[in-house]
Amino acid sequence: MDIDAEQTDLCHYAQAHQQRIDHLRARIDRSARELRVHEMIRDLADNSQLPHALRSLAKMPGAELATARDVRVFLAEYGVSVPAEWDIKVECAAGDFSVVATNRDDWFPANLSWSSSESFNGRITNNSRRVLQPAALAADA
Q1: How far apart are CA 45 and CA 30, in angstroms?
Q2: Full DSSP string of 73-116
Q3: Model confidence, pTM
Q4: Rounded to an integer, what distance in angstroms lies between the CA atom of residue 85 and that of residue 66?
Q5: How far is it, in rounded angstroms, from Cα 59 to Cα 27?
Q6: Is pLDDT at 130 greater than 70 in this prediction?
């Protein structure tokens, strides 16, 4: 085999390893993003003041008109911080008051909700595999 053929073989060998490196880096990035979502959810769920804060919010007159900023300020008064990556909205229907937080991550969007009738619920959608992974959150009643 001549040197040009050896260099071509090495070039292909290096390219194959570069493709694997790129693939692994992409997997690491997706895993890091998923890890971050789970950490944010865990941090919210670990806050013992969250159920008290949401129940108090639901009892406030005019709470159904609260803006996302209003909800963030109200929760902060209880020591509850919702990550900036999450949108918050208040919903009221048929006497049920609920607060819904939605993570805007493209790969791992998540919805967390609390309602006065159903307590806490959560769902993470793994868009990299299109698999739904329900995440039920326990709360102090």
Answers
A1: 23
A2: HHHHHTT----TTEEEEEEEETTEEEEEEEE--SSS-EEEEEET
A3: 0.74
A4: 19
A5: 45
A6: no
